[in-house]
Amino acid sequence: MTAWALLVLFALLTAMAHLLARRIAARPRGMAPFQQIPRALGRSLETGEPLHLGLGAGGLVGSEAALTWSGVRLLDRLADEAAAGEVSPQVTVADPLLWLYAFHRMQEAVRRQGLPPADLPERLLWMGASPMAYAAGLLLRIGTQPATALLLGGVFRAEALLAGERGSRAGMSVLSAMPDPLGAAALWPLDPTLAVGEEAFAAPPPEATAGRPLTALLAHDLLRWLLVVLLLGAAVGLSLQGR
Amino acid sequence: MVRRGTAMAILSLAILAALGAYAWPDASFRQGITELGSALVAYAALVGFVYFLGGHLRRVVDQKAGWPYSLVALTAALALLALSTLEGGPHGAWFNWIYRHGLLPLEASLGALLPFFMLWALWRLMRARRSVYGLLFIAGVLAALLMNTGGTSLPDRFGPLGAAVLQPLITGGVRGILLGVAVGALVLVVRALLGLERPFRGG
Fold first, then answer.
1. Could you tell me the sign of the dihedral formed by the alpha carbons of B197, A160, A78, A30, in that order?
2. Four-CA torsion B43, B97, B149, B151, nearest 10 degrees
3. Helix segments in B66-131, DSSP class H
4. CA distance B161 to chain A (A)
5. Of A91, A196, B10, B38, which sits 20 to 30 A from A147 (CA to CA)?
6. What is residue B202's predicted lDDT score, i.e. its pLDDT?
């Protein structure tokens, strides 16, 4: 019963935030990593070197599915535009189901441009089934294959630093969106403007205008403030009840 | 159309599996959904493994850059597959021995590099731009290193350092971020359910 009440409450809050986000004149804030994606893409098309997208050690089924999905939105953002310039991104995953989805997504992007999907197995790699094995594979890949930028999204923890540092030393721009606080803490020295927590879910969809502020973030902010008010109210109420 | 329908069905299954614990007290129904999901993952793993082998085999045959790594990966994967088959599953004695004395030490060694990478990254950060946040971060990292190497001989006037700093500040901050993650995930799911988000973009 409590769980249902919570779900209904969350749904109401979400709907309210979405409605308010359309009416409020406040300018939504932008997220530096997502705003830099068009520039990284442009550089990739100019140089002919791909972007490298690390989708982390999580999968699409299980408790970490939502976190992984935040990284998948980056793939959605990149796949079509990169394929249009005939420079498909390099994508590394650690989960077979995510591998299948990424393969399908990249194949679709290439097919839409009328190009043969010949080198997709070279572009999409299953690196390892555990976080450290994945990090080791990612390190090796970054060290041997040139790329203009390293984008890290999805489930990463402290091992994200290994990949980020290697990419940074190889001269790549490191852009990251880390829902997990451990991954965010590890990557902060490399990219202090990285997207942390719920910000990682606000990657703009492919059809969004490049560089435009994200309204999804406004919805998140509103929800967060509503939750803060609810928590404070509950704390005050419980304190008064205890007296 | 069919592909999109299939994809949406998979998404619905994932949502059902997530909500199952709340919505259906009947354990057998929840078990059924979970087993269906597990079968899907097993099939995906098989397809992924075959592609993994095929990709590395192609690299070795074509002698592309870094092909010796592919040869090692291919040999190790096939050897472990053969061993697992001979021992009747991945819980055999030899398989466990390789896992315990091969994979785990390798992962631990890689993990042991993390503090050095962190210090190197911090040094580069402070060289590039000095800020209050950078100093705070360095203080945090040094505190964590000190606490994980046997503590400090500083006076213990306000209680243990871990209890004074870690509990109220860091745990609180992390919980705040996790609350935000829950909000982000919920917004994503609600947007998907309302059709505002198209998680599976079919052709």
1. positive
2. 80
3. 67-86, 93-98, 104-112, 114-128
4. 20
5. A196
6. 47
For the whole prediction, is pTM greater than 0.80? no
Contact between residue A77 and residue A176 where contact means Cβ atoms under 8 Å apart: no
The structure tokens listed for A46 are 């100019």
**b/e per residue, B18-56, with b = 16+ CB within 10 A?**
bebeeeeeeeeebeebeeebeebbeebbeebbebbeebb
Asked if B48 and A189 come within 8 Å (Cβ–Cβ), the reply is no
Q: Whole-angstrom Cα distance, residue A167 to residue B127?
A: 18
Does residue A227 contact residue A98 with C-beta atoms inside 8 Å? no
**pLDDT digit string, tens, across residues B14-57:** 666 666 666 666 677 767 777 877 787 788 788 888 888 888 89
CB burial of A195-233 (b: ≥16 within 10 Å; e: otherwise) equals: bbbbbbbbbbebeeeeeebbbbbbbbbbbbebbeeeeee
Nearest chain A residue (CA) to B123: A189
Strand ranges of the sheet holding A124-126, from the earlier edge strand across to the other edge: A124-126, A90-93, A52-56, A149-155, A173-178, A195-196
Three-state DSSP class for residue B26: coil
Q: A120-143, pLDDT tens digit by residue?
A: 777 888 888 888 889 988 988 887
What is the pLDDT, as a whole number, of residue A55?
93
Q: Do B185 and A126 touch (CB under 8 A)?
A: no
User: Measuring CA to CA, which residue among A150, A153, A140 is closest to residue A57?
Assistant: A153
Q: Tell me how far apart the alpha carbons of residues B3 and B11 are, in angstroms, rounded to a whole number.
A: 12
Torsion angle defined by CA atoms of residues A190, A195, A198 and A199, in that order, rounded to the nearest 10 degrees: 180
> Which residues in chain A touch residue B184, judged by CB atoms under 8 angstroms apart?
66, 70, 179, 197-202, 220
